[in-house]
Amino acid sequence: MIGSQDEALKLRLKMMIIEECEKEDITPEEIPDDVELFSDASGLELDSLDALQISMGLQTQFKVRLADSKDFRRVVTTINALADHLQPE
Amino acid sequence: MIYIHKSGSINVRQEETFDVKAAWKKVSPSMIRRTDRFIQLSLLGAYNTIGQEEIPEESALYMASGQGNLAVFKRLRDQRYIYKQPPKPVDFINSLSNTSGFYVAQFFGLLGKNLNVSRHGLVIENILMLAQADLEQGREKQILLGGVDELQEPLDFTRRTLGLCDDHLLGEGSNWLLLSAQKEEALASIEVLSDQMDSLKLKAYFASLQQKTQVAFGGRCESVWVEEILKLYDFELFEYASECDFYETNPLFALHRFVEEGRGELLFINTFNAQYRVIKVVLI
Amino acid sequence: MQKNRVFVNAYESLSCAGNTAELMDAIYSKKSAITIDTSYMSEHKAGLGSFAPNAFFPSLISVAETVLEQSELTDFSETLLIVGSSVGGIGKSEQIFFKEKSYQNINPKEHAISVISDALNSAFGFKDSRSISTACTSSANAMMLAQRLIRLGAYKNVLVVGADALCYTTVCGFQALGVLSTKKCTPFQEGREGMNVAEGIAALLLQDHETTTSIELCGSAGSSDAFHMTNPDPEAGGAMACMQKAIEDAGLQLEDVDYVNAHGTGTQANDAVEALAVERLLTHNPPMSSTKAITGHTLGAAGALEAIISCEVIKQQKVAPQTSLEVAENSVVNLPGEAFETKIRHVVSNSFAFGGNNTALVFGAVK
């Protein structure tokens, strides 16, 4: 199943983001699937340090290594796109 | 001469549990992200001193600690050696010692100098001397000065590290003073006597005192020695130790309690490596 | 109140570029001492600045010994020791781990910052000691504290020691922050990659009287951005404020500054903001360079190491060039491509740390 269709995978990603970015006051349901995570529209207010924490979370929990910030910006856009990257089919 | 304008405290006994997060929730609806217990203790202690009041943004922030934020080092160590993982960015940053100062500065909007001093023994006396120097020279107008220590388990290991005997109770705390060179509206004057003294010199100083004085002693003073001093000189003991277990920065707790409830004048005597220092507080 | 003046009367350092004399040669001839290393992270290359591995503590003692020999003092019994270090004994406890393969035997006492002052104290017996840890401004803040105490007359002699050893925690920590360069760092360069972590030891004897070789520590100041934990204030407010306050503290005008030894780590964020701060504040455009292109970033030792470089620049009346620069990102600031001799009255040395902790020191030829 392609990642963006896999609700369980997307929930795991959202839980990871909440944990790594210490956003305990946000529930996974409040994180939209198709909005850029690092945009104002997501309402998450994430910054560069969050990017590093998410990058580390992807590495330790999802075994995905992102080489640098360029790579990160390419892969970590929306939850749907990130899930598709992790699970292309 | 410099003056205490505000004082505030968090003080946790060895047998107590203190939910710092819950306490902070009463101050501010959301937890400040990326903070750990050490930083939360720092913030809450400073808040208990300043509250909602705005203080001038050029105020300086001086922080002292006996051991610093050791817990984060342990986390980094565990990540590396036990879980075989790279350090978490936030933990690495928080291990760089001045982070608690950053969060306090950010919360209270302080843009002045931000210092962090750690030392085994007499750390409060040292940072107070520094504050005294900067305020008296007019280098700073106002200094928010705090001492923060977090209790580290296992206790016997921590006692060994601190060089304390086995029956010493260990606590933790975050105690703060707002200091300036201005006497108006101050609560008390405070002065660290410039001489570091050995026991003989200290006794000569005690003998030179003209009037009955209140005294308090740091946790490193041997109880036998304290009893001897109390017998030899016309002193009245200001009791704070029954409310406070040992941590390196707890002299600030004693000063805070004296400012809150004492009267007259207090000499706070503390020691490290057979050298003594005296802090003199006179209530206004 | 009459304030004592503060003089730097003796100093020595050790970095990947060698001792102070070797370091100045490397700076003036633009020879970076950074090496590319994979021993800390097998999967990543990193430019690091390293000297004699496993000899950090003996080196620490020998650097202090050299300063004592240079000075008129016979011992340090009437000297206050102020140590500035960001990681202190981390390297030592890591070594214990690697040797014994045991986590249990790491002594937190040896892990603390105070391990450096303890080692120096047991070798020399200082009158008193204290440690300052504010990450990358640690030893710059130690210099500032020494200046205050001497001015006030609390001490006549203060030895400032900045010391940080290379260790896993800092190399991998900065890697985790994504700010390490895989190559030799290129401060102020357009499209620069990041910083090089390095180790360093620098010791300076500050005294309340002048000798024939004195350089004066004329001013110092600190400020906080209170902006973001890792990112500097993009408007450079904190960086400008501390430079301006330090120059005022020295009783000087902005135009009296003839050279700036920049913090210049080689990271995107630091160099852009620092260049902007210098561009806006020092409009007479004095030459500026970051000697971290030679030494790497020695973290808590950087402030003291660059204080020594600043003293040398004044003694030699010769501007330190910017090594590894091809195209500057900020085209306004004056980053000299080659060393040159000129009249240098005063030098500003910048140190900035995470948490928006900024410190500037001002050195001058003795008048």
CATH topology of the largest domain in chain B: Peroxisomal Thiolase, Chain A, domain 1
Shape of chain C: globular
Structural class of chain C: alpha/beta
> What topology, given as strand order, has the largest sheet of chain B?
3-2-4-5-1-6-10-9-7-8
The CATH class of the largest domain in chain B, by name, is Alpha Beta
Q: Please summarize the sheet with the most strands of chain C.
A: 11 strands, mixed
* CATH homologous superfamily heading of the largest domain in chain B: Thiolase/Chalcone synthase
Number of strands of chain B: 10
Helicity level of chain C: 25-40%
> Any idea of the CATH topology of chain C?
Peroxisomal Thiolase, Chain A, domain 1
Spatial separation of the terminal alpha carbons of chain C:
21 Å
| Cα-atom radius of gyration of chain C | 19 Å
How far do the termini of chain B sit from each other? 13 Å
What's the total number of strands of chain C?
16
Which chains share the greatest interface?
B-C, 54 and 56 residues
Helix-strand layout with pairing:
The complex is a heterotrimer of chains A (89), B (284) and C (367).
Chain A: H1 7-20, H2 48-62, H3 69-75, H4 79-86
Helix pairs in contact in A: 1-2
Chain B: E1 2-12, H1 20-27, H2 37-50, E2 60-65, H3 70-82, H4 89-94, H5 99-108, E3 114-118, H6 123-136, E4 142-149, H7 155-162, E5 172-180, E6 188-192, H8 199-208, E7 213-217, H9 223-232, E8 235-237, H10 251-261, E9 265-272, E10 275-283
Helix pairs in contact in B: 1-2, 2-5
Chain C: E1 7-15, E2 18-19, H1 20-28, E3 35-37, E4 46-49, H2 56-70, E5 79-84, H3 90-100, H4 108-111, H5 114-124, E6 128-132, H6 138-152, E7 157-164, H7 168-176, E8 197-198, E9 200-207, E10 215-224, H8 237-249, E11 257-261, H9 268-281, E12 288-289, H10 292-295, H11 302-316, E13 318-319, E14 340-341, E15 346-353, E16 357-365
Parallel strand pairs in C: 4-8, 5-6, 5-7, 11-12, 11-15
Antiparallel strand pairs in C: 1-2, 1-9, 1-10, 3-4, 7-9, 10-16, 13-14, 15-16
